[in-house]
Design a protein that fits this description.
- The structure holds two protein chains of two kinds.
- In chain A, the strands form four sheets. A six-stranded mixed β-sheet of chain A has the order 6-7-8-3-9-10, sandwiched between helices.
- Chain A is 38% helix and 23% strand.
- Chain A folds into two domains: 235 residues, P-loop containing nucleotide triphosphate hydrolases (Rossmann fold, 3-Layer(aba) Sandwich); 220 residues, 3-Layer(aba) Sandwich (Rossmann fold), CATH 3.40.50.300.
- By secondary structure, chain B is mainly α.
- In chain B, helix 4 packs antiparallel against helix 5, helix 7 packs across helix 8 and helix 11 packs antiparallel against helix 12.
- Classes of the chains: A alpha/beta, B mainly alpha.
- Chains A and B meet through strand 6, helix 4, helix 5, helix 15 and strand 15 of A and helix 7, helix 8 and helix 14 of B.
């Protein structure tokens, strides 16, 4: 039976000249797990929003055509009237929580629908078990980890027994472990409860292997098809798919397992893995030490966020800081920069501790792009922000704009920084920070909300910075990004540095951190580009 | 009823509020330090016996601190600007002469024991009131209290809950933006800083509010509400008129001059009736249900009654022997002990023994470091 049916649906927002999604016809059967892929700004979110009527009832805009969910037309049903049929979970679960404990949050939707107390009680217990969060029932929502919050958010819409579950980027902000928890929960729902699931995800590699169907959104148009078929031409593709495309494998591998089986011939050509080879690989550019931290510690109350970390950053090197959510990555970066508080230890840049400098001088030594870059922006136009950056750093007028054009070309000067895409905003803040000409640049989770192209562009910028002698430190969960960009990987666990070494060595030593290509081919190959280089043009 | 064999459970929040208000009323009727001390002791005992380990329970300390501040401020104010009266000179401060138009304000000057004691017991009375209310707050989760509001007040309750949870988020984003300014080399404060902080914070807050609103909408908020405007208008006017009458009636009852004559009580009654009718009528419109609503059992009734006993005992004592309820200052003497009032207030300690124990929270099991830190603080 058809769960979701869209007939020539177009959505145009107010003030927009072109529709965001254009003439979409789509049928989704009951029990399907559908993955929606597309570049940032391609209309994915609009498509998802249309499924429960948030578009256009809540967002405004004009929707033509019909969207019907199990026979209910969103024209006559407001999102609240579909709450018993469609469960929607957004990207930031914390922002959507209404109550403050897990149990109450699970019950909230049922209370709104007026279910009987004994029914609610039973369903809350079922849902707690289904998602494996029973031990958290009384926990305050704000204290949960990202993966737990996301599971609670999913649970809170499941209690009304919806037939359709819509998830917008459920694992984007999560570390690999949190993402695994959430994905396991989602697949369980599809297999055990036959719920129709529509999920949009930037990190396609995480969901692709579970999907029955892929919707590829390009400029408002939607292509629908089997995963392998769509992935052949998709603008968004995980590394294992790119490897498969390059190697001409048929059928196209969607998971590491598929890739491993298809990759036997390639591995054979590599011969038996020389065990020491990985370790012997010289790092790309051995630079000079520029920042040295000794016994650096950070405390938040009783919690030791960073414990006596020693580390050295070198010029012309990109280092990636990895580790779970809450492992202390942000605290470490802020402490290294000198603006964050420190419980002990010293940092030296050319013999000076940045914490002893005034903020204005400090940023000329170490620049930091925080997790929410928008915090740094407060002026109404991109041009004003750039001019302000030149003024506050005493640079020649046009410096910041010049940097911005190198990083992300083609942003109109009069654009409001709020209207920029994630990637553009990151570029703007990066340009502002670079205007102070710091020798060390740190970026806290820069890949959040970036699609593959955005990440590739960022990687290029960072490599270029390293090439011009900067020391770059970035924190990320994204192993594929690390594989492309980093010379060196530092792993932080519970505030302690547990690994520090060349990328190839560190990421391949643990399955959780290994990129897909490394899992398929081994031999210290991390990215498709590595493979191409090793095998020459043709496999 | 009220046996010690009861299973641990959290008492209905309204019961604790009824109990605390009873004690507060008792405290407000007296300046007898013995009675005030008794009220304080009772509140303290019950709070220690029945509070949970939740954050709001820990806020009791803040109320105690506030009460101490009130007493100190009252006494200091008396010495600074109060009207000093009495026969027993305590100490003499240089008097500051004030111009004619400020007559009646005595800046410093001699301080007498009587006036000083009067200020002290006045402060003590106010402090006791604050601690009684603080006790209710420590014993009853304010959010659960909102959950037991009648349906007609449901929206108001939701708004309060949402704003309560938004406040810490707002503080967080202010902190984040302040910190981020350092990265741009800005550390100064002032008007420019205000704009630099306020704009990102406001945008952040707006985004969050929109996301919350979208989430609530898609989860069915308001879906069970009928949309008959006539009915809503009737509910609104009934409730509003009822509240206005309630205010008038209250004034009539409490006004010592009796300007409203005998009309106070009837107006109050009509006001209450109209408000209740409005809420009941409006509440029927909304068909939301409550998950695990707190039951009202014998222990709850007993708790409210014990609070009532404190108020009633004190009131009866006052009508029999009003002199016993005030601190005797002219001449200074040891305060007497009005038996009925003391008995009533002592009865209010009953909930410490007969109500079910408060269950310990499960938060200890939540695998979160921050929580265990908080718990050790409570245990310590």
């Amino acid at each position: 039976m058809t769960a979701i049916s869209l007939r020539s649906v177009s959505v145009t927002y107010a003030d927009a000249t072109a529709p965001v999604i254009d003439q979409v016809d789509l049928e989704i059967a009951e029990g399907e797990l559908v993955l929606v892929v597309g570049r940032t700004g391609s209309g994915k979110s609009t498509l998802l929003g249309a499924l429960n009527g948030l578009v256009p009832h809540f967002t405004g805009g004009t929707l033509t055509g019909t969207v019907s969910i199990h026979g209910r037309d969103t024209r006559d049903h407001r999102p609240r009237d579909l709450a018993d049929l469609v469960g929607v979970v957004g990207q930031d679960p914390l922002a959507g929580f209404v109550t403050d404990t897990v149990e109450e949050e699970l019950a909230y939707g049922m209370e709104q629908l007026g279910l009987a107390p004994d029914v609610m009680r039973k369903r809350v217990e079922e849902t707690l078990d289904l998602l494996g969060i029973a031990d958290l029932r009384d926990a305050p929502l704000a204290d949960l980890s990202g993966g737990q919050q996301q599971r609670v958010a999913i649970g809170s819409v499941l209690t009304t027994h919806p037939k359709v579950l819509v998830l917008d980027e459920p694992t984007s902000a999560l570390d690999p472990t949190g993402a695994e928890e959430v994905l396991a929960a989602i697949t369980r729902l599809v297999h055990d409860l036959a719920i129709t699931v529509v999920v949009a995800e930037h990190r396609v590699e995480r969901v692709l292997q579970y999907a029955d169907r892929v919707l590829h959104v390009v400029d408002g148009r939607v292509e629908s098809g089997a995963p392998a078929e769509i992935m052949r031409t998709s603008t968004i593709a995980p590394p294992v798919v790119e490897l498969g495309r390059w190697a001409g494998w048929h059928p196209l591998p969607l998971s590491v397992r598929d890739g491993w089986r298809a990759g036997a011939s390639l591995r054979a050509r590599l011969g038996t893995p020389p065990v020491e080879e990985v370790a012997q690989q010289p790092s790309r550019n051995p630079g000079q030490p520029v920042l040295t931290a000794t016994k650096l510690s950070v405390r938040h109350g009783d919690l030791v966020a960073v414990r006596e970390v020693d580390l050295v950053l070198r010029t012309a090197e990109v280092a990636a800081l990895m580790g779970r959510n809450g492992a202390g990555k942000s605290s470490l970066m802020w402490a290294l920069q000198g603006s964050g508080k420190r419980a002990g230890g010293t940092v030296g840049i050319g013999g000076v501790d940045p914490a002893d400098l005034t903020p204005a001088v400090r940023r000329t030594r170490v620049g930091l792009v925080p997790q929410t870059p928008a915090d740094l922006l407060y002026l109404p136009t991109v041009a004003a922000e750039c001019a302000q950056a030149d003024a506050e750093t005493g640079s020649r007028p046009g410096t910041a704009r010049g940097l911005l054009d190198r990083i992300v070309p083609g942003i109109a000067a009069e654009t409001h920084p709020r209207d920029l895409s994630e990637g553009q905003r990151l570029g703007l803040v990066l340009a502002i920070q670079l205007a102070a000409r710091p020798q060390v640049l740190m970026l806290d989770e820069p890949t959040r909300g970036l699609d593959y192209q955005g990440k590739a562009a960022l990687a290029e910028v960072l490599r270029e910075l390293a090439g011009s002698g900067h020391a770059v430190l970035l924190s990320t969960h994204d192993v594929e990004f690390t594989a492309i960009v980093a010379d060196r990987v530092l792993v932080l666990a519970a505030g302690e540095l547990v690994a520090d070494g060349p990328t190839a060595e560190v990421v391949t030593s643990s399955p959780a951190f290994a990129p897909q290509v490394a899992k398929v081919l081994g031999h210290g190959l991390l990215t498709v580009a590595d493979a191409v280089e090793r095998f020459g043009r043709m496999p | 009823m009220g046996s010690t064999g009861q299973l641990p459970r959290a008492l209905h929040p309204l019961a604790w509020w009824g109990w605390a208000i009873g004690l507060a009323v008792a405290a407000s009727m007296t300046t007898n330090p013995l009675l005030l001390a008794l009220v304080l002791g009772v509140v303290w005992l019950v709070v220690l016996a029945r509070r949970s380990d939740s954050p709001w329970a820990r806020a009791f300390r803040i109320y105690v601190a506030l009460a101490v501040v009130i007493v100190v401020v009252r006494v200091v104010l008396h010495v600074l600007v109060g009207f000093k009266w009495g026969d027993h000179l305590l100490f003499r401060l240089p008097s500051v002469g004030l111009p004619e138009w400020a007559a009646g304000i005595n800046l410093l000057g001699p301080v007498y024991l009587e006036g000083w004691l009067a200020a002290l017991v006045e402060g003590l009375k106010l402090g006791t009131l604050v601690i009684a209310i603080g006790g209710a707050n420590a014993l009853a989760n304010p959010k659960r209290l909102l959950r037991s509001l009648p349906n007609a007040l449901y929206e108001v309750g939701t708004a309060v809950v949402v704003s309560v949870s938004v406040a810490p988020q707002l503080a967080q984003s202010v902190q984040r933006v302040l910190r981020a300014r350092l990265l741009r080399g800005e550390s100064g404060l002032g008007l420019r800083a205000l704009a630099q902080v306020a704009l990102p914070v406001l945008q952040d807050t707006l985004d969050r509010s929109l996301m919350l609103a979208a989430a609530m909408e898609s989860r069915g908020y308001g879906s069970s509400r009928g949309s008959r405007p006539a009915r809503r208008r009737l509910t609104g006017s009934l409730t509003l008129l009822g509240l206005v009458l309630l205010a008038f009636g209250m004034y009539g009852v409490l006004d010592p001059l009796g300007t409203t004559g005998d009309w106070g009580v009837p107006i109050l009654a009509v006001g209450v009736a109209m408000s209740v009718a409005g809420m009941a009528y409006g509440g029927r419109e909304l068909r939301v249900t409550r998950y695990r609503s707190d039951p009202w059992r014998a222990a709850e009734t007993l708790t409210v009654l014990s609070g009532l006993a404190a108020a009633a005992g004190t009131a009866v004592s006052r009508s029999i022997a009003p002199d016993l309820l005030v601190m005797p200052l002219q001449p200074i003497a040891a305060p007497g002990l009005p038996v009925l009032a003391a008995l009533g207030i002592t009865l209010a300690a009953l909930p410490a023994f007969v109500t079910p124990r408060t269950p310990s929270s499960h938060r200890a099991q939540a695998p979160v470091l921050r929580v265990s830190g908080e718990l050790s603080e409570v245990a310590g």
